[in-house]
Design goal:
Radius of gyration: 19 Å
Helix content: 40-55%
Number of strands: 8
Order of helices and strands: EEEHEHHEHEHHHHHHEHEHH
Strand content: 5-15%
Distance between the termini: 13 Å
Shape: globular
Length: 328
């Protein structure tokens, strides 16, 4: 039976965090498998609503599907007092790349029982974060990690990185003023600007409009730009050690025309790990697939998971998953 989606706001590592969940909360021993999405940048979970809803439905509503925002990439309710925690977050650099990794590990410790098996789904920089999570906590029960459009190496050298590095690393503060002025506009006007900005996308998923509106409120956009600057500086060499250690749990999905992780990166990693599962998009999906192809990508991901978990999930977990898949 379908549960309506829920959104929760709370502090994690001193920073406001948003959790979008399809399925029960809190988790109990009855929940054997959790699908957890680690977003790209901006790490706004609302962008993944259609993707999550489709995946939850295709799993027969048997397994919770959650997405946790990046620290500071959400507009918390006015009732959340940010003064003390915000200072702590800034001191620990939770808004930076390393801080975001620790933020996700802290989320798992605080909200997910250790016996829960995880299916991690990363998008863009979320793929880098997942590899770091698996490196720093190799004991966590990861059944599978799906890395969609993975920005896990040489970001500043990519075609899009060469364009964005000067903006994110050297001109970031110049952009803050227009962002602040945008945040002062009435929501109706901001929605009109968002629709105009995204108007060139033929099959735009209209559920992304409201999350974009939230991104233009408060400090979310500034925090996203700060994280982006760190990505350009810190995502350099591919972590072949971690990839090799967990190769049997990883699926990589590269875009055929992705300017953040060009085709060269796909061919090189496939050559370096001939036994790995590396897939190249044949459907023309854009890097920011949530804008117009969340449903299609979720359908594709379900097929991967359905095929793989039947052989990996033991006992009653396997029976539960197979039954939910069989009803579809």
């Amino acid at each position: 039976m379908m549960d309506p989606p829920h959104t929760d706001f709370f502090y994690c590592c001193g920073a406001a965090t948003e959790l979008l969940r399809f399925g029960s909360c809190p988790l109990t021993s009855a929940h054997k498998v959790l699908f957890l999405i680690i977003p790209g940048n901006p790490g706004v979970v609302g962008f993944y609503r259609t993707f999550m809803q489709t995946l939850h439905s295709r799993c027969g509503y048997q397994h919770p599907v959650w997405a946790v925002s990046h620290a500071g990439h959400c507009a918390p309710p006015a009732s959340m007092d940010m003064i003390e925690d915000g200072a702590s977050a800034a001191e620990d650099d939770v808004f930076g790349l390393d801080g975001q990794v620790e933020h996700k590990l802290a989320f798992l410790r605080n909200h997910v029982p250790r016996e829960t098996s995880l299916v991690l789904i990363g998008h863009s920089i979320g793929c880098y974060i997942i590899l770091e999570m698996m490196k720093r906590n190799p004991e966590q029960k990861v059944l599978k990690a799906l890395l969609l459009f993975p920005t896990i190496e040489r970001m500043a050298q990519s075609p899009q990185g060469k364009v964005m590095t000067p903006v994110l690393c050297h001109m970031r503060y110049v952009v803050y003023l227009p962002l602040f002025l945008l945040s002062l506009l009435p929501d109706r006007l901001k929605v009109g600007l968002i629709r105009l900005m995204l108007g060139g996308i033929r099959s735009l998923d209209l559920t992304v409009v409201q999350p974009t509106l939230g991104l233009l409120s408060g400090d979310s956009a500034a925090n996203a730009m700060y994280l982006g600057g760190q990505e350009m500086k810190k995502v350099l060499k591919r972590d072949d050690t971690t990839i090799g250690k967990h190769l049997d749990k990883l699926i990589f999905y590269y875009g055929a025309t992705d300017h953040w992780c060009p085709l060269q990166y796909y061919h090189e990693i496939k050559q370096d790990f001939p036994l790995g599962d590396f897939r190249l998009c044949e459907n023309g999906f854009r890097h920011a697939f949530v804008l117009d192809a969340g449903r299609e990508v979720a359908e594709m991901v379900f097929e991967w998971i359905c095929e793989d978990l039947r052989s990996r999930v033991p006992g009653d977990q396997n029976a539960s998953f197979s039954a939910s898949a069989g009803r579809l």
